[in-house]
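RNA-directed DNA polymerase, eukaryota
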Amino acid sequence: MKKKVQDGRSTKFWLDNWIGDQALCNQFPRLFRLEENKESLVRDHWNDGWTWSWSRPIGRGITSTHLSNLLNLIDNVQLNEDKDEWVWTLDKSNKFVVKSTRQHIDSLLLPDSQPHTRWCRHIPKKVNIFLWRALRDRLPTRWNLSNKGIDIESILCPVCTSSPETVEHTLWTCSLATSIWLKTFQWLDLDFPSSLTIAEVLEDLDNRRFSKENKEIVAAIIGVIHQRAKVGSNP
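Predicted structure tokens:
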């Protein structure tokens, strides 16, 4: 269910799902924390332009970026005098249909396409757990912490400061991680893969035949990158 905004007089700006994939309080938690009237209506924020009531001024930085993203999201919203209404988003007709509802329920209950669980006996248990979390984007990178609304000084990688610290950046595209992987593949006399994600890198390694010694080398390298991630998250 989603709210279709018309006059904006019965739709809560932050708490109702009316634009985007979820309520704005979840899309922009930093801004929501600064909102003085958290149950304000869409109409409350409109006066020949969008208006706000923040508990403190918004300066530069991450919060300012989030505000810009919010303004871009609602830029094309136009209010009129018709009443707001709920619509059923699981069917193109915007009306309740049993078939589309059942398909949605099945998609939630049936197994998803999460990467299969990896467990390598050549790697310490804590590194196996680290990889399991990494493949599901469950590491406390600066990017993930910021998206959860946690105030941090910067979302940039503390090692190279050139890109946001995401899981893929930490383990694969960061200059330090890339240099480690490059030397590893050279050492193993293998072509450097054109993979875009760490999952593709690991799959590429899975498809290769390694001696016991080479498996231990790969395991050691993953352990080194694991330690790099720990150090990077605690600068």
